[in-house]
Amino acid sequence: MRAQIKVFVCCLGCVISFPVYADERRVSTWLHEVKFGVLDHDTGDLWSGFRRERGVDLNLEGIFSPQIKFLGGTVRPALGGSVNTNGDTSKLYSGLRWQYEHASGMFFGIGLGGAIHDGKLHPQHNDRKALGSRVLFHIPIEIGYRLSSKSSLSVYFDHVSNAYLANSNEGMDTLGGRFGYRF
Questions:
Q1: What is the distance between the alpha carbons of residues 88 and 119, in angstroms, rounded to a whole number?
Q2: Does residue 137 contact residue 115 with C-beta atoms inside 8 Å?
Q3: Do residues 98 and 122 touch, judged by C-beta distance below 8 A?
Q4: pTM
Q5: Which strand (E) or helix (H) includes residue 127?
Q6: How far apart are CA 84 and CA 105, in angstroms?
Q7: What is the pLDDT of residues 72-129, one digit of tens each?
Q8: 76: number of Cβ within 10 Å
Q9: Of 78, 93, 102, 117, which residue has the fewest beta carbons closer than 10 angstroms?
């Protein structure tokens, strides 16, 4: 697990330091925003209904520049991951993210995509979720405030499950805060 955390921190450092050395016009053509968060892992009493796993998730996400205007907001592709600091389930995810930004600085985003994880598939232990499938649906929701044209703070929720396409489907929710930096 410590190796996963080291890889995550190294990737975070590379993503954050990259724009310092790159031509801003090139960066802005493919990467729109990077978000880093600290999330409560397997939060109870939400969509999944109960908690089995513990710890904190470190979350890193890239939102890319290609966009489609839709219903007053913007749809963009996203790629991210969360590493659990307790050695429980970690995940990588990708999908499409729709975000609406108000002139006041408030924003709301919702998405749909897929995730892969390293957790348990079937009930084996009472301290681990049985997710039923290695590939899951990923549904994120985010509400935040843009502090400046480049930075934001937000409350982030995400849910992963197999939508009852496999025998076990305990699902998992995370909830926490994220900092965003826009290029």
A1: 7
A2: yes
A3: no
A4: 0.82
A5: none
A6: 31
A7: 999 999 999 999 999 999 999 999 999 999 999 999 999 999 999 999 999 877 888 9
A8: 19
A9: 102
Alpha-carbon span 116 to 135, nearest angstrom: 5
Q: Are 129 and 118 in contact (CB under 8 A)?
A: no
What φ, ψ does residue 104 adopt, rounded to 5°?
-70, -10
From CA 165, how far away is CA 9, in angstroms rounded? 34
Q: What ranges in the chain are assigned the alpha helix state H?
A: 2-21, 24-30
Neighbours of 124 (CB within 10 A): 9
Strand, coil or helix: what is 27?
Answer: helix
Write down all domains in the chain, each with its CATH number in brackets: 2-182 (2.40.160.20)
Nearest C-alpha neighbor of 35 from the set 168, 150, 174: 150
